[in-house]
Amino acid sequence: MKAVEVNDVSKRFGKVEALRSVSFEVERGELFGLIGPDGAGKTTLFRILATLLEADGGTALVDGMDVCRDYTSIRSRVGYMPGRFSLYQDLTVEENLAFFAALFGVDARDSYSLVAPVYRHIEPFAKRRAGRLSGGMKQKLALSCALIHRPSVLFLDEPTTGVDALSRGEFWDMLTDLKNSGISILVSTPYMDEASRCDRIALCNDGGILGTDSPVRILQRFDSPLYAARADDMFALLGAARKVRGVERCYPFGQSHHIVAGRDFSAEEFTRELSWLEGLCLEPVKPAIEDVFIKLMQK
Amino acid sequence: MMIVILIPIVLMVLFGFAISTEVNNIKVAVVAPHRTDMIREAVTRLERNEYFTFCGYVGEKEADMLLRSGRADAVVVFATDYDRRMMQASEGLPSPALIQLVLDASDVNTAGAAQAYLQGILLGSASAQDMFETRMLFNPRMKSAFNFVPGIMGFIFILVCAMMTSISIVREKETGTMEVLLVSPVRPRRIIIAKMIPYFVISCIVLVMILLLARYLLDVPMSGGVAGIFSLSLLYIILSLSLGLLVSAIARTQVAALLISAMVMMMPILMLSGLLFPLENLPAFFQVISCTVPARWYIDAMRKMMIQGVPLSEVWLDCLVLLGMTVLLLTVAFKRFNDKLE
């Protein structure tokens, strides 16, 4: 039995198609990432899986149970952490935890061993109101609350959005630990660099899934040579580079521009033709998830 | 948006045409032992007057019943030797207690106006005060508090129950906590009931406080039986709670909930429940609308029970209407309250 099975799920809000026949599966004990920009339909998908929304078409199973038919039993065995901080801001950290324990009818002390690795980080602030925690601590508290009833599947909607880089790293370490303790996790993120922390990822864009695979195999899908180009005048470089023979695509990528090379691309010819640009430098680079994303998006 | 545009129009129409503190349509019954020509003439004047509705000649016992049941607002009792003493009066001789006016003073405004109008019409400007013997029933000291207490109760419970409940539920939606509450084994029904309980308790405390204040500070008689007053108020509280629940099912934000509560619930209570303005003066159209305002029935029943001393069994119509409304609202509210987000 898979942890999550999504078959041809579609959902529209008026004229907007939020999801277009999305299908994927999450294996038991897997850390599965939905990677995609805002508006890709990730939150809608989470709400359907968390039984908060009904899909217009297709079927979705969580723990082998249908999200429409068996939603009451699903609700007691999944942990759901919405994208927006959704705890009681005017309750303290420990009150929130106690509240969610009561909500799920469990004793907070019984689940402490499972929650502890996460909760330990915020325990020093147990008496502080949840609304006054920092972004990273809020997410750790929310994760603790989502874990309190020992769920078999965790749904985490953009848990690292608005969290500083250090806390993000910590957060992913926790997710890996949780996965190793046997919990299946479906997590979404707009940060492509976090994709490598997942066992498998699905690249989502505009209500559809561009590709599903392990991060390494996703990267292998990028089969063209890739270069990074830099010059003093980056804007001029972008326009000029696109006109050079053999350049399939050129797009800004962090500090440099990434150039996808076609069959008749030659690095010498490129540097010669654009030698009028001061400080020009071109070097081959390994593709990142973004590059795959951009490539799949343009197909 | 609709509210912003509609409210001024509704207010203008209501205040301009519908609502007036002027007293209209006062129901008058006449007790006359001998229907002499002079009495007939006086009654004809009464009949022709647009402020009064003549309910016919009745016996004394019947008159009492009419007043008690609210089918008459005033009773005019002519003295047995009316004609003879009227003659004396026209010759300038004192003739006290020529006519007895018995008025239902549970609504102070109406009673006061009715008294003045009746004196003017029956004997004209020539009349002297002492020609009338006036009896104010139910509220002999013409205390306006008597009239006001039931109205305030009808208002407060809507305020506490409907508005607070709807806002507190919508707040959960707005902050997103409803999302996590729903994805838990707790049934949505239980969440709702849990949200309602505090306001139910508060309302009960408020009810006890109001009743104590009304009884011991304002001396409202409450002769209709405290148990009846209490149980009908509880029904009204439950009705208000379900109204709040319904609002929370419709509204998505706290502001919207507040607006809906204020405009859609407060306004009709203030304008169309008889709280501020007597309902009798409303045009037929608004009379019909006022029948859909729960507070109208509650306030009506409360006035009868608290001031006129009518027992619960005699306001069965109000009770029945309120009960029906409660059942309807609760059913709709629970149906509308989705256990999903949409």
Describe the structure.
The complex is a heterodimer of chains A (299) and B (342). Chain A is an alpha/beta fold and 299 residues long. Chain A has helices at 42-49, 71-77, 93-103, 112-119, 135-147, 165-180, 215-220, 234-241, 267-273, 289-298, and strands spanning 4-13, 16-26, 31-35, 57-62, 65-66, 78-81, 153-156, 184-189, 200-205, 208-213, 226-230, 247-253, 256-261, 281-284. Chain A folds into two domains: 4-220, P-loop containing nucleotide triphosphate hydrolases (Rossmann fold, 3-Layer(aba) Sandwich); 226-298, VP9 protein domain (Alpha-Beta Plaits, 2-Layer Sandwich), CATH 3.30.70. Helices cover 31% and strands 27% of the residues of chain A. Chain A starts with a strand and ends with a helix. In chain A, 41% of the residues are buried. The mean pLDDT of chain A is 90. Chain B contains 13 helices and five strands. Chain B has helices spanning 2-18, 37-48, 60-69, 82-90, 108-123, 144-175, 177-182, 188-216, 226-250, 254-272, 284-290, 294-308, 316-336; strands at 26-31, 52-57, 74-78, 99-104, 132-137. Helix content of chain B is 64%, strand content 8%. The longest helix of chain B is centred in the middle third of the chain and has 32 residues, at 144-175. Chain B folds into two domains: 18-137, 3-Layer(aba) Sandwich (abc type-2 transporter like fold); 144-336, no CATH class. Chain B is elongated, with a radius of gyration of 24 Å. A five-stranded mixed beta sheet of chain B has the order 2-1-3-4-5, with helices on both faces. The model of chain B has no long low-confidence stretch (mean pLDDT 81). At the A-B interface, helix 2 and strand 6 of A face helix 7 of B.
